[in-house]
Structure formats: C-alpha cells, structure tokens
C-alpha cells in the first residue's frame, strides 16, 4: 500500500439460491479473509437470489433460514434478486426484512405501487465507513415489471436509478459500489455509460468472472452461482483522489472447513422446516404416476388444473415440471415441493390453432422432450412432452416428423388452424424457451403469487378431477 492510502477489502457473493450445504464454508472463508485484511477494513455484500424456495429450509421457514445465515455470516449490506422479490409476497418480505438486522437492504428501483415509495425496510443507497474511507452503495434488481405489478410493486428503470444515485453520492464518498442484480450485459453497459462508478458487483445471469472486467473507470465483478465461489476485491484509496488501485479475484468455497455456528443455525431451521412441510395436504386413493416423455395421470392433473385455474379452453404444461409421481396415501407439502420445485407461475394466453398444432407435433419428438432446460425459474432436468387438457389428440407414432398428428379435438369440435383459443399454461413458455410457438401467444396474463404446486394442491383434493386424470388425451392410431 502506498503512503497516505487506505486499504479496503470487499467480500461478495451472489445467486447462492439457498445452497445451504455451502453456506457454512462461505462463512468460514469470509472469516479468514476478514482476519487477513482486518475486519475494520472489510465490507461484506450479497447481490441477491440468496433465497430459493425449491429448498425446504427456505420454503418451510418462508426465508427465515436465509436471513439467519446472512446475519450470522456478517453481511453488511444486501440487495434483492428476483427470487426474493417475485417468489415471496410483500407481507412476507416485510416480515423478513422489516425487523432490525445487522445488514442494510439497499434497493433503489422497487417501489410499493400503492404508496409510491420504497418499502420501509429498504434504502436506495447508503454510505458506510471503514477506517475513514467513505463507501457509497447503490442496489438495483432486474425490473420484471409485468410480474412485479401483480404483487403490488412498481419497478423503476434500474439504470436511471443508478445514474441518479451516482450523481448524489459521488461527491460524498471515496468509493462507489453498485450492487447489481441485473446481469452481465447490463453491468457492462452501466460501466461504459455511467461515469463515477468504481466497482460493479454483479449477479442474476450466474456469470463467473475469474478476473474482473475493467470497463471505463469501473471494475466489473461476479462470483458465479450456487455458492461455488465468492469474490474478493482489494482497493487502495487515497484521500481526495479516491480509488488508486483495484484488483479482484474469486475463490472456490468447497475446500473450506464449515463454520460450526452457521451449520448449527441451518440444522435448527431445517428441523423447523421439516415439521412445517410434513403436514398432510391431500390423501390419494390411487397412485398418480408421472412420466416426462409420455402422457401420465399426474401430468394430466396439472394440465387440467391450469385450465381451471385461469378459466381457459385448453390446459398445456411440459411434463418436465414434474420430477416424480405420487403413490397412494398421504401427500405432504414436502412431497409437492420435491416433485414440483420450480417457482413457475400459471398464465393465460391466446394461441391460434396453427401455433397449438406446431407445439403438439414438437412434443412428439425426442429432440424436444429430452431437451435440457436451464434457468427461467425451471428446476427440473428436461423439457418433457406436453401434458394437455381440453384436447383429444390422435397421432401415428410412425408418421413423419411434424406430421404425426392425424386429428385434434378441442372439446368435441375439430381444431381450426386460424381460430384463437384461450390457453392455461405456464409463464416459462412466454420467455421464448421450450415450445417456441407457445411463446407467440397474445393477451398474456400472469397469475402470481401462485406456483404450479399450488395448482396441484387444489387438484389433488378434487375427486372428480383425479378420476378424470386416467382418461387418455393422446391416442395412438395407425394410418
């Protein structure tokens, strides 16, 4: 360190997605890195998506397990990702972040729609001090406005908010850091177009930057996903000049010894979650098998549930959403989480008969049914065939590709290629993945905060619907 300079170490994580198995190791590594630099010269930040409701510890405690870990690990500030903002209601977020914590929630672009202001538990920016070094923090998250509006939020443009708060903070601080849950492309744009930022700590797109990008005057950093790595940024700061030297790196986590205190917190919260999730939610007289590559009763239950949930003519869902079937007997909340873990929401749209037929034909081809899918809320493995309700499809398995289907009935009427049909399906298809013709739907309406497992829960308690699930929608014929 040069004369008259102060050193500052920034520790950062992002997109941990409730990988509790790594959190004790992260805490241990952070403690070692703080000891090395001096706790009084270290700042610890999380860039969002720490929570993921696919994990029982999070689902069964409504995120309280994650909050306990953040607190005990010694984070100074966090921002929210879409997995916090879009999978929990505003009331739950108030419960989790509204209490007094050792960390600040920094989030500039998520306003309460009714009140026209930030929630009381968040600040658009803040200034923290380490050994006389003043550090400005700005937090922003991805603005999925169509979804957030259904939960009572009004999302502001994140870049406009960064610009606003950079102008406000820059004269007051020695170091300016943006905590950005926006994704790599937007972080690169921010670094190129907004002057005055020293460090951008990124997330959302799960990118791992083993060495930071240097764009304009900013160091752009990110530590991947699932707690496999954490990031370290070391700065030298000179009074009156700001940052005069900056370097960053990522470190693997798996080689660290677990912190016993964090492990104990997780164990206690896991036991609490287990008690909550083991409650009975339904009782089945007969098993409901599920297959990813063909029609099966549980897939039919989910397709019918989506149709009824949104009031549509037809229900469509990919079989890959269901990771297993259900045996006869008691069904628990834990069972539903295990077999349908994705935070995916119902939606309604209109498709033409031609678009629908295209998707149905594709769902008979192994290159579609076996296609791996990553991200977009999907927590399964492969796309799977289409489970349907409101349709009867006759097809010839030996027919040519995209020409196997011989007839489609909508109710008791033939499918018309130019006609428009009201479809109950899933938000994932609207993102342009899977069956592409479904992404061309119009009049799209999303249903939040319900997940697919909420739809299943209602259907599993409908005796008539369960009986109907064994009726075949896909019928093989030979021409």
UniProtKB/TrEMBL annotation:
<protein>
    <submittedName>
        <fullName>Bifunctional UDP-sugar hydrolase/5'-nucleotidase</fullName>
    </submittedName>
</protein>
<dbReference type="InterPro" id="IPR004843">
    <property type="entry name" value="Calcineurin-like_PHP"/>
</dbReference>
<dbReference type="InterPro" id="IPR029052">
    <property type="entry name" value="Metallo-depent_PP-like"/>
</dbReference>
<dbReference type="Pfam" id="PF02872">
    <property type="entry name" value="5_nucleotid_C"/>
</dbReference>
<dbReference type="InterPro" id="IPR036907">
    <property type="entry name" value="5'-Nucleotdase_C_sf"/>
</dbReference>
<feature type="domain" description="5'-Nucleotidase C-terminal">
    <location>
        <begin position="290"/>
        <end position="427"/>
    </location>
</feature>
<feature type="domain" description="Calcineurin-like phosphoesterase">
    <location>
        <begin position="8"/>
        <end position="207"/>
    </location>
</feature>
<keyword id="KW-0547">Nucleotide-binding</keyword>
<dbReference type="InterPro" id="IPR006179">
    <property type="entry name" value="5_nucleotidase/apyrase"/>
</dbReference>
<keyword id="KW-0732">Signal</keyword>
<dbReference type="InterPro" id="IPR008334">
    <property type="entry name" value="5'-Nucleotdase_C"/>
</dbReference>
<dbReference type="Pfam" id="PF00149">
    <property type="entry name" value="Metallophos"/>
</dbReference>
<comment type="similarity">
    <text>Belongs to the 5'-nucleotidase family.</text>
</comment>
<keyword id="KW-0378">Hydrolase</keyword>
<dbReference type="GO" id="GO:0016787">
    <property type="term" value="F:hydrolase activity"/>
</dbReference>
